[in-house]
Amino acid sequence: MPESPFDALLSRVRQIDGFLLGCIIDASTGTVLGSAQDQQDLSLPVAAAGATDLANVISLMAAGLAANGGLEDVIITLSGHYHLIRQFSPAPKLRFLLLVVLDREQANLAMALRELRDFDLGAAVRPDPALPGHPRGV
Questions:
Q1: H helices of the chain, where?
Q2: Is residue 26 part of a domain?
Q3: Is the separation of the CB atoms in 90 and 96 below 8 Å?
Q4: Order of strands, sheet of 81-88, starting from the edge strand that comes earlier in the sequence
Q5: For the chain, which ranges sit under pLDDT 50?
Q6: b vs e for 23-45, b when ≥16 Cβ sit within 10 Å of the residue's Cβ?
């Protein structure tokens, strides 16, 4: 069976040092579209819902402050983990989030951010025209 664009992107994300969890989320609904996980005790639905809420709140805050530009990254540092949220739009009216959770002891935060920014996320995930929000979709 051919690999989906989400699987291809997540296999690249999985190579980041300290990788524990990665998922691609529809930013408008919080739906997990693809995921990869090396540690089973992390709750994927909770992580996805939290990432979606944070990204939406920060986007609203930036708009309210008349900040120029849109959301790029959200970085959360916890005692044992880094949570990185990167927003991308592979097509008009589609907004996805890439959530990556890293083990803080094994990860290099600066390198992880650079790797995520170097991924051409929009090109890596070509949306299915049947997806809601796609210009030719439902």
A1: 5-13, 44-64, 109-118, 121-124
A2: yes
A3: yes
A4: 32-37, 19-26, 96-103, 81-88, 73-77
A5: 1-2, 132-138
A6: bbbbbeebebbbbbbeeeeeebe
What distance lies between CA 7 and its chain's CA centroid? 13
How big is the chain, counted in residues? 138
pLDDT tens, position by position, 92-126: 778 889 999 999 999 999 999 999 988 766 555 55
- The SS3 of residue 92 is coil
Residue 135 belongs to some domain of the structure: no
**Per-residue pLDDT at 19:** 96
Question: What does the longest C-alpha to C-alpha distance in the chain come to?
Answer: 47
Task: Report the number of secondary-structure helices (H) and strands (E) in the chain.
Answer: 4, 5
pTM above 0.85, yes or no: no
In a domain, 21, yes or no: yes
Residue 25: CB partners within 8 Å, gap ≥ 6?
31, 32, 33, 48, 51, 52, 96, 97, 98, 99
CATH code, 26: 3.30.450.30
Please count the structural domains in the chain.
1
What pLDDT shows up at residue 138? Answer: 36
Question: Which residue segment(s) compose the domain that 59 sits in?
Answer: 5-118
